[in-house]
Structure formats: structure tokens, C-alpha cells
Amino acid sequence: MAFLLVGAKVVSSRMLNDRECCILLKLYWRESLLLLLALAAVVVVFQLPPLAQDPSYHQFFDARTLFGVANFCNVSSNLAFVCVGLFGLWHLRSIQSGHLKTAYLIFCSGICLIGLGSAYYHYEPTPHSLVWDRLPMTIAFMALFVMVLADRVNARVAKLLLWPLLSAGLLSVAYWYWTELNGQGDLRAYVLIQFSPMLLIPVMLLLFAKGVMRTAWLWGTIATYGVAKVAEHFDEAIFHATGMISGHSIKHMLGAVAVLWVVLSFPVNNDENARE
Prior knowledge:
By secondary structure, the chain is mainly alpha-helical. Helices cover about 75% and strands about 0% of the residues. It has two domains: about 1-45, no CATH class; about 55-265, Up-down Bundle (Rhopdopsin 7-helix transmembrane proteins), CATH 1.20.1070.
């Protein structure tokens, strides 16, 4: 965060007195709050006992085979991610905000990989295939967080955090899979990677000045993601209510819509400079 850069410069020159500390906290209270929330999320998650993967997670209600494809609806609904990811990559040429381009490119690429990895997993749901579903999801979540951080808080700090956070996301899946192979899976790190951006992004939208990414579309992303998780929870009930599609398939399509809102949050040919 910005206050970390300021703090490093000050400490290197002289010790701060109480009055100067108060001034810094007043200037950077938003950054301080964001950092405290991130640290609190880490502490809370790792205070929990290890979170094992429920074996029933792999038992989706709609297991119909259509056109020779097992679990057809849960497989085919992932095409929405591929389509939106490709649209996002096409949209990249119109984005002039250079400080966001790298994270945006990684985000859209991750979304395409989610479509492929999730389709592979749902064709044959096992802990082994689930790895390829979760790996690209961590890429997308971390890239989205870095984009909003760069846009609303500090572009330099976001640039420094991009690759460490992407690595942390991939390692969270590797750690879960390693513990799964050793007989007691632990999802805590993965849960932190997936849900902490959904906690911190609304905070950034509320506390920091508007940037290049349009606020209404980002709120749409948060809201649509929430509805998608509800649909996932009511997988069987939604299938009984509709008679043709399950909550999990709807979750995939809503997830793709949430991604679309992120893409559309970027105005075309916007040449605003990064906030340093």
C-alpha cells in the first residue's frame, strides 16, 4: 500500500515521534484499514482447524449424459467463461490504461483457462481433475484484486504485488492437493485466496476515489458473484424448480456474467494516467 512506501522512506531517515505518526495515520487511514482487514482475514482463516474437502462436493445433481458427454450441462456451461475471456482479450486493444494492462491480460487469460479447466473437471469430477479447475480460478481472483488495487489505491504497490499474489494463489491449490494426497485435505489457503478479494474489493470501492474502472460495473461483479454462489448452494432445488438446468450450471453462467461486468468496467480508449 502507499503508506508502506512512505513509511520505508521515513524510517530510513529518522525515527518518527508520536505527532508525526498520528499525521501519517490520518493521511493513510484508508490504506491502513485495508491492510488491517487483509491481515485479519489471514489470521481468522488460519485460526480455523484444517478445512477438508467434503467428498460429496464432487456429486452434482445434474449428471445427465447428452450427445455422448457425461455431465453435459455442467461441462458445456463453462463455454460461457471461454467466450467472455476471449471477448476480454479482444477488448484489450481498446484499453489505454497501461498500469492495468498486464493484470487485465492475465485476468482474461485466466478466465479462458477456467472454462477449459472447469469443463475438464466436470466431465470427470475427482480431486485430481479439480486441481485444473482451481488453479486458473486463483489466477483470475488475484489478477482482479491487483487491477482494483492499482486503479483505486496505488499502481506501484499493485505492480509489486502482482506476481507474489499470483504465486500465492497457485501455491494455495498445490498445498491443498498435497494435503489431499496425504489423507487430510486443507482448503484454508485456497479459501483465503478466493474470498479475500471479495471482501477487500468492496472496501476499496467505498473508501477510495474513482479510478479508470467504472464503479457500477464492479459492484455488478460483486453482486453477480454472490448470486452465483447462492445458485451453487441450491444446485438440486433449482433443477427441480426448472426441470431442465441445475444451480451449478447457472453458477457457471452467472460467473461468466460477473466477469463480463469487469471487462465492461473499462471505458474504451481511456488514457487516464495511473494514480501514484
